[in-house]
Design a protein that fits this description.
The protein is α+β, with helices and mostly antiparallel strands. The chain is built from 13 helices and ten strands.
């Protein structure tokens, strides 16, 4: 009966009432447009995220201002080798309308001299083709567009060749940097009663600064502390630094005195000074861990700062000239006491001569001001404070010299 009642009710229902009860038909065109819009939105989001990721990888996460500052710094550093080859005294001798052309010619010739003869010819040909296309001169069967295309391809090929040389040279320098890292200690020696920390930052990939701290004649000998700075930067200075390290280690292995060790280092430096063009400033000392007795030589080096527990400051100065200048130079040693809680700070001129964006030097005065407060913490904390203050002072200015600092604290 219930089924019959439902059938009768459906028969009596009007078409309009039946239409209201049925679900409304969907437009297939609207569904297609909605799906297409959703797909396009999803693709756009993925493309935007991919572009952001690609930009971060391309810029290494640097901001636009940082990128521009680094580009200007690198451009200035890259143009320096070409400017050094220009005789500016001759170029600026006559002030006339020809002076800009003289400067351009001198710089262009300096660039060409850096290239091999085949690459010089190749570069000149591409420049000639580009010039012909710009003035609208068609050479033989080459149209203006073909000349411009050939010039572009030629310059691109030359750029790829130069980049290949750069990558190969950079790989070799990275190997030299790894070798140089092996020549200096990575962790300070563990000596009872002595706390040591050190840090170094090369201005280039490799540096001419050297530091070392080790016990002579095994565990029973005095602690030898050395910080040296070879004149110059980059690869030439790094090679002489390696020679200095080998000589120091070899001489320290014998039982000669510190005076004899310094004399041997000076002879070795004189034999590799390139006719007086290369010398080495150094601070070399022997410390008795038990008594705190310190025998030292400061050969043309920045006088280290010794702060005593009572707050007094002593500069370990010496009238000695750098190593590698005079073969028969007689080096006189100094002596002092490193008492309990005393701190010795040894550094290269890259610390005090670091410049900020305004060209101001960090200077000895700022370094002395930093250590006026009590230095009761560990050597590593004292060192990190020096480097942090140096970074705050320099800011975004480029580093012009190798920076090395070594802190010794007697506990």
């Amino acid at each position: 009966m219930l089924l019959l009642h439902n059938v009768c009710w459906r028969v009596q229902t009007t078409p309009s009432e039946l239409q209201r009860e049925l679900p409304a038909p969907q437009d297939p065109t609207k569904n297609t447009i909605g799906l297409s819009a959703a797909k396009l939105t999803s693709r756009a989001r993925r493309a935007f995220a991919s572009s952001q990721d690609g930009w971060r990888r391309l810029t290494a996460g640097m901001e636009i201002d940082d990128l521009w500052s680094q580009f200007k710094s690198e451009a200035a550093a890259s143009s320096r080798p070409y400017k050094q080859d220009v005789d500016w005294s001759q170029v600026n001798s006559q002030k006339s309308w020809k002076q800009p052309f003289k400067i351009a010619r001198a710089v262009i010739w300096s660039i060409l001299r850096k290239l091999s003869p085949p690459r010089r010819i190749f570069l000149l040909l591409t420049v000639v083709l580009a010039s012909l296309s710009l003035i609208g001169f068609e050479f033989l069967i080459f149209t203006r567009e073909v000349e411009l295309l050939l010039a572009f391809v030629g310059l691109l090929m030359l750029l790829v060749m130069v980049l290949g040389d750069h990558i190969s040279m950079k790989r070799d320098i990275e190997i030299a940097r790894e070798i140089q890292r092996w020549l200096v200690p990575r962790v300070p020696p563990q000596i009872a009663g002595i706390d040591i920390a050190f840090a170094t930052r090369p201005a280039k990939t490799v540096a001419g600064d050297y530091y070392d701290a080790f016990l002579r004649a095994g565990d029973s000998g005095p602690l030898l502390i050395a910080v040296a700075d070879v004149a110059g930067k980059s690869v030439p200075a790094a090679m002489l630094m390696a020679t200095f390290q080998a000589s120091l280690r070899a001489l320290a292995g014998s039982r000669n005195s510190l005076s004899e060790l310094v004399a041997g280092l000076n002879r070795q430096a004189c034999s590799n000074n390139l006719n007086g063009r290369r010398f080495t400033t150094a601070f070399i000392s022997e410390l008795d861990p038990a008594t705190g007795g310190l025998t030292y030589l400061c050969a043309g080096h920045n006088p280290p700062i010794l702060k005593h527990k009572d707050g007094t400051i002593e500069r370990l100065k010496s009238e000695a000239i750098p190593l590698g200048i005079e073969l028969n130079q007689n080096y006189e040693l100094g002596q002092t006491i490193l008492g309990s809680q005393d701190v010795l700070i040894i550094f290269t001129d890259g610390v005090t001569e670091a410049r900020n964006e305004n060209g101001q030097e960090f200077g000895d005065a700022r370094l002395l001001t930093m250590i006026e407060c009590p230095l009761e913490e560990r050597a590593a904390l004292i060192l990190s404070g020096v480097m942090r203050n140096l970074d705050d002072f320099v800011g975004s200015a480029s580093q012009h010299d190798d920076i090395t600092c070594l802190v010794v604290r007697r506990t």
